[in-house]
Design a protein that fits this description.
Layout: H1 10-22, E1 25-31, E2 37-50, E3 53-60, E4 63-68, E5 72-77
Antiparallel strand pairs: 1-2, 1-5, 2-3, 3-4
C-alpha cells in the first residue's frame, strides 16, 4: 500500500524527537483529514513510524492523540 505521506524537514523531525525525549508540554496546531484545523494542549510522548508515515503521539488528559507529522501546522512549547 502506497502512502500519501509527505516527508518533513530533517531538522523539524529532530525537534519533534527532542520534544518527545523531554516529554515537553505543547499546544499543537494541526489539520485533520477533513481539512479542519485543531489546536490541542498536551505532552509529547513519542514520535514513531507506521505504514510509511511518521506520527507524533500527544498525551492529553487521560487520552492520547496521534497526528501525522505532515499534518502539523505548528506548535508552541511550554504551554
Amino acid at each position: 500500500m502506497k502512502s500519501d505521506y509527505k516527508p518533513i524537514d530533517c531538522g523539524l523531525h529532530s525537534r519533534y524527537e527532542l520534544l518527545a525525549m523531554r516529554r515537553a508540554r505543547v499546544v499543537l496546531h494541526y489539520r485533520d483529514e477533513a481539512e479542519k484545523d485543531h489546536r490541542v494542549r498536551g505532552r509529547v510522548v513519542d514520535v514513531f513510524t507506521r505504514r510509511g508515515a511518521e506520527y507524533l503521539r500527544l498525551k492529553e488528559g487521560r487520552g492520547s492523540l496521534e497526528v501525522r507529522l505532515d499534518h502539523i501546522i505548528g506548535f508552541e512549547e511550554g504551554c
